[in-house]
From TrEMBL, chains A, B:
<keyword id="KW-0560">Oxidoreductase</keyword>
<dbReference type="InterPro" id="IPR016161">
    <property type="entry name" value="Ald_DH/histidinol_DH"/>
</dbReference>
<protein>
    <recommendedName>
        <fullName>Gamma-glutamyl phosphate reductase</fullName>
        <ecNumber>1.2.1.41</ecNumber>
    </recommendedName>
</protein>
<comment type="similarity">
    <text>Belongs to the gamma-glutamyl phosphate reductase family.</text>
</comment>
<dbReference type="InterPro" id="IPR012134">
    <property type="entry name" value="Glu-5-SA_DH"/>
</dbReference>
<dbReference type="GO" id="GO:0050661">
    <property type="term" value="F:NADP binding"/>
</dbReference>
<comment type="function">
    <text>Catalyzes the NADPH-dependent reduction of L-glutamate 5-phosphate into L-glutamate 5-semialdehyde and phosphate. The product spontaneously undergoes cyclization to form 1-pyrroline-5-carboxylate.</text>
</comment>
<dbReference type="GO" id="GO:0004350">
    <property type="term" value="F:glutamate-5-semialdehyde dehydrogenase activity"/>
</dbReference>
<keyword id="KW-0028">Amino-acid biosynthesis</keyword>
<dbReference type="GO" id="GO:0005737">
    <property type="term" value="C:cytoplasm"/>
</dbReference>
<dbReference type="InterPro" id="IPR020593">
    <property type="entry name" value="G-glutamylP_reductase_CS"/>
</dbReference>
<keyword id="KW-0641">Proline biosynthesis</keyword>
<dbReference type="GO" id="GO:0055129">
    <property type="term" value="P:L-proline biosynthetic process"/>
</dbReference>
<keyword id="KW-0963">Cytoplasm</keyword>
<dbReference type="InterPro" id="IPR016163">
    <property type="entry name" value="Ald_DH_C"/>
</dbReference>
<dbReference type="InterPro" id="IPR016162">
    <property type="entry name" value="Ald_DH_N"/>
</dbReference>
<dbReference type="InterPro" id="IPR000965">
    <property type="entry name" value="GPR_dom"/>
</dbReference>
Length: 415, 415
């Protein structure tokens, strides 16, 4: 394995954390936050080298760009992480067995966390601080577009680690070569989990090629069902919020499921969306109900392809359903199991929906826009898992840990 | 995908569980236990067809064989599962947010659990009962050697499901063709987790080829460190138990790490092992200490290959270390992170060891033979995870579940 020496070093470095206290960890992180500010000119200068290689018209340009204000936000985020309680060492379970063995389950770091991401240099600080807080060494593979920025950031981090007498191998930035990605995907025995952060294409690539355990984050094909009894006023505000608050995020609404008895309310329900420029892709019944009311240039007949699409833009599919079971069937078929909502004043229907829908976050009478670590009170978030193993939905500090069983005996043997 | 129709059916069937109560689930399982007994002649007859195709000298023959007594044990195990509390619906976390949203984390089934295993027909009953109890549909891929047995078992299970009006697709047995395995490994979006049960070769194959999330179970390269202060009498019993209780299991001892100051005690420490016929592979210092005491035909100089080997037989590596840190380094290098132990009367050393060793189960002054779901009080076990994601160590019912976030609002939108 070409990068085996690097992986071996990182894995060895991960053992450092068994002798670092939560306070020492926070102290390092505070110094990293300070160093991010102190090194602003250097970081911006290196970031500019990356920017110079990219057209400002490229949609990635803005994500790549660091500014003084953004570095201040980054420093604040790291400071915030230091204020969160450490999950490490938590006794999850403890019991004295009849044979006198004392058994407990203790929260421990995962070990080595790999993260593959694209041209967002802020992720480098972000992933480092969350991994370091949770006692994990990290192996970072950033996009080649951000090479200068990431090298500069890791240099700043390493200088702080060195000052604290901690090996820099706890935060390893891989070179931009593609072979490094391939090695990371295959680093069985060295990497405990790999988290891809970025486009669906990146996530698919990682899932297809990884030999190490992966947590998938990302894609949200999000529905909201407007039930027969739903409140029109609340529903109008919620749908508008879920669709337009930020269209590029995974919790944004993609499909409105409308109870057929509420077709007459549909024009009012989506009226604010017209003003925001939302294009609707409506099934036949919804199209019919809207055609005299919604701007013609924003209203299109829905094709099959519009269902099950994550738009990430000012577009919304509208589907009319006969009843709640039909809505549930549609969601089961097209949902990416991220965030799903029901708007209803019928308590029984709400319970059926919350129970039946298989998604990371299921909502009643509120906006799917709340699917977010900070909103859920997790303090920080490394991603939103769309799989069911290990972590589901927003992943905070606890989701960057594992546990081990500790058994204390006094000579017991098994019969 | 060739088996897509089957996977689609199983996934759809997994939704059945949202309308089954814990009592209904237990009632089905009790009937399956009864049916296993009632159909003993049929099951033994079909099992005999498999046995007829295999040489009785084949080490797999005994694992493949069903008997009346084994079917009684299987029925008892299923009955036992019905007595365990259901983890489903457990409220893991609940909170009222400042904006009035009520947020909770609820335990739910994983969805569809795939299990690939070898010629052990008991696994078919075992996996079905644990998955059904936890509200999961299962896709079973058994070894071709057990084809008749598995078909018979699934027929018995399906008859019970039918009697209860439950779709048989909640328990899907794939055909024995290799293509079925390949499809299962790639059933992204249909299978929530895949658990290989069997040899290291099978586990490696699954890890290398799976596109769906995998939980690795199995391999245990197990060490016990006999410290400077360890009690000789207790240590002798513990080491003998850990090595000889059952040599073919993953928690069996593979390497004794001996503090150099205890070399003079080594002959007494391993004396009972000689009687059990344990072959020792000793490093130079240990070999020297043993040569006048241990039977010559059972004592060999250790080669590098003997460290980091899971023997699964009456063989034991012996390595002399200068101190605790050296023992920790050896474990970090060779352990498979399954079960590791320290024998010591030094409380400080014990704490250092328990804290520093990265393994699913870490023991002080007792036998690694305790790494087992039943011993840990989990009631039942689907395997012992050697990875750190999702589940570590013995996996019981809870480890066959995920969770979802439920958020109840009253018109809240995100700012």
């Amino acid at each position: 394995m070409p990068y085996q020496d690097i992986f071996t070093q990182t894995q060895a470095a991960s053992r450092t954390f068994t002798s670092l206290s939560a306070e020492q960890i926070n102290s390092v992180l505070r110094d990293v936050a300070a160093a991010a500010l102190e090194n602003t000119p250097f970081l911006l200068q290196e970031n500019q080298k990356d920017l110079d290689r990219m057209s400002p018209a490229d949609p990635k340009y803005d994500r790549l760009k660091l500014t003084e204000a953004r570095l201040q936000d980054i420093a604040k985020d790291i400071e915030n992480v230091t204020t969160l309680p450490s999950p490490l060492g938590e006794v999850i379970f403890q019991k004295e067995l009849p044979n006198g063995l004392n058994i407990s389950k203790i929260r421990v770091p995962l070990g080595v966390v790999g993260v593959i991401y694209e041209a967002r240099p802020n992720v480098t600080f972000d992933v480092f601080s969350l991994c370091f807080k949770t006692g994990n060494a990290c192996i970072l593979k950033g996009g080649s577009d951000a090479e200068f920025s990431n090298n500069a950031i890791i240099k700043v981090i390493h200088a702080v680690l060195e000052k604290h007498g901690i090996t820099p191998h706890v935060a390893t930035l891989l070179p931009v070569e593609r072979e490094a990605t391939q090695s990371l995907l295959e680093a069985v025995g060295y990497v405990d989990v790999l988290i891809p952060r970025g486009s669906q294409g990146l996530i698919d690539f990682v899932r297809q090629n990884a030999k190490v355990p992966v947590i998938e984050t990302g894609a949200g094909i999000v529905h909201t069902f407007f039930d027969e009894t739903a409140d029109l006023e609340k529903g109008t505000a919620i749908l508008f919020n879920a669709k337009t608050r930020r269209v590029s995020v995974c919790n944004a609404l993609d499909c409105l499921l409308l109870h057929q008895k509420r077709l007459t309310d549909l024009p009012a329900l989506v009226a604010p969306m017209a003003q925001a420029g939302v294009e609707l892709f409506a099934d036949a019944a919804a199209y019919q109900a809207l055609r005299a009311h919604y701007p013609a240039h924003l209203l299109h007949p829905a094709q099959e392809e519009h269902f099950g699409t994550e738009f990430l833009s000012l577009k919304l599919a509208v589907k009319t359903v006969g009843d709640l079971p039909e809505a549930l069937d549609h969601i089961a078929r097209y949902s990416s199991k991220h965030s799903e909502a029901i708007l209803s004043e019928d308590a029984a229907n709400i319970e059926v929906f919350l129970n039946a829908v298989d998604a990371a976050a299921v909502y009643a009478n509120t906006s799917t826009g709340f699917t977010d670590g900070a909103q859920f009170g997790l303090g920080a978030e490394i991603g939103i898992s769309t799989q069911k193993l290990h972590a589901r939905g927003p992943m905070g500090l606890e989701e960057l840990t594992s546990y081990k069983w500790i058994v204390r005996g006094n000579g017991q043997v098994r019969g």
